[in-house]
From TrEMBL:
It is an enzyme of class 1 (oxidoreductase). It is a multi-pass membrane protein. Residues 79-283 form the Fatty acid desaturase domain. This is stearoyl-CoA 9-desaturase. Its EC number is 1.14.19.1. Coiled coil: none annotated. One of its GO terms (molecular function) is palmitoyl-CoA 9-desaturase activity. It comes from Cyprinodon variegatus (Sheepshead minnow). Its cofactor is Fe(2+).
Length: 336
């Protein structure tokens, strides 16, 4: 635990505090802003980003072809694809999400380098941009200022938001966010400066090269399965958190918000489907009341703490969770 007590009340006070003595982690702007109001009048026109439409279409066609190639791949290649899936997923969940967007724990330099490399393997925009968009998502959830506003439907919150220009409010609110912690993180800034090269290496070259070099897999199969298919699966697993977990599932912690507890998403996104809990307590490193249960990312962070590579995991106390369930839950809470 840090000196910043992970109590809901104290956190809210810290968010509103303007004196300089709050812990830097507490300055993370991930609490919902009730004061924001969408602008009246007609919505701005939707502007397509055709480059992304074409790239995403080609990527998904390539991934579908990769599925057909699975029977021709060696078991080692399939195992390697799974390893790449888990590594890149961790780069998003343990890295861009829980560490850099929410500052839910602290990571040593070697771990931050590892997570930044894994994050480049996931190729979902650099950490700085990902974390900025994600803080805006929490702060202005389901409004015009939410980059993947689930109020605009499943398709928009899943992939559509990447195929059109951002709503002006997303850009405006993103610019006003407090991001000094990210700007001060040398690993984040280094990854941002060398992002294209790191993606080329981590997302495509290494997933392809390893099976070809070490066990003689064909470059064709190595390109379509561990690189393209694996990349597409990680993308969709992440997007499901924004789409499915904002639409289907229970709301045991806060019935007044859209995000839900979704078991399928929990499984596919290695622990990120406890989304009603997560939006209620965004600073909890486990993103769930249940710790490691169904939560590979939490297990990973715990293991890193065990190795001495991470520390200061923030957790919400049982009493705070219980009182929140009583106060705002939808009555569906089960213990365990
Ligand atoms: Zn969300
Ligand atoms: Zn989050």
């Amino acid at each position: 635990m840090t000196g910043c007590e992970p109590l809901e009340k104290k956190k809210q006070q810290q968010h509103t505090s303007v004196n300089g003595d709050v812990c830097s982690e507490a300055a993370v702007e991930d609490a919902f802003d009730h004061t924001y109001k969408e602008k009246e009048g007609p919505k701005p026109p939707r502007v397509m980003v055709w480059r992304n439409v074409i790239l995403m279409t080609l990527l998904h066609i390539g991934a579908a072809y990769g599925l057909f190639l699975i029977p021709t791949a060696s078991p080692s290649t399939l195992l390697w694809s799974l390893v790449c899936f888990l590594l890149s997923a961790l780069g998003v969940t343990a890295g861009a999400h829980r560490l850099w967007s929410h500052r839910a724990y602290k990571a040593s330099l070697p771990l931050r380098i590892f997570l930044a490399l894994s994050n480049s393997m996931a190729f979902q925009n650099d950490i700085f941009e990902w974390a900025r968009d994600h803080r805006v998502h929490h702060k202005y959830s389901e409004t015009d200022a939410d980059p993947h506003n689930a109020g605009r439907g499943f398709f928009f919150s899943h992939i559509g938001w990447l195929l059109v220009r951002k709503h002006p409010d997303v850009i405006e609110k993103g610019r006003k966010l407090e991001l000094s912690d990210l700007l001060a993180d040398k690993v984040v800034m280094f990854q941002r400066r060398h992002y294209k090269l790191s993606v080329l290496l981590m997302c495509f070259f290494i997933p392809m090269f390893v099976p070809w070099y070490f066990w003689g897999e064909s470059l064709w199969v190595a390109y379509f399965i561990p690189a393209l298919l694996r990349y597409t699966l990680v993308l969709n697993a992440t997007w499901l958190v924004n789409s499915a977990a904002h639409m289907w599932g229970n709301r045991p912690y806060d019935r007044n918000i859209n995000p839900r507890e979704n078991r399928f998403v929990t499984f596919s996104a290695i622990g990120e489907g406890f989304h009603n809990y997560h939006h209620t307590f965004p600073y909890d490193y486990a993103t769930s009341e249940y710790g490691c249960k169904l939560n590979l990312t939490t297990c990973f962070i715990d293991f890193m703490c065990f190795l001495g590579l991470a520390k200061d995991r923030k957790r919400v106390s049982r009493e705070v969770v219980q009182s929140r369930i009583q106060r705002t839950g939808d009555g569906s809470h089960r213990s365990g």
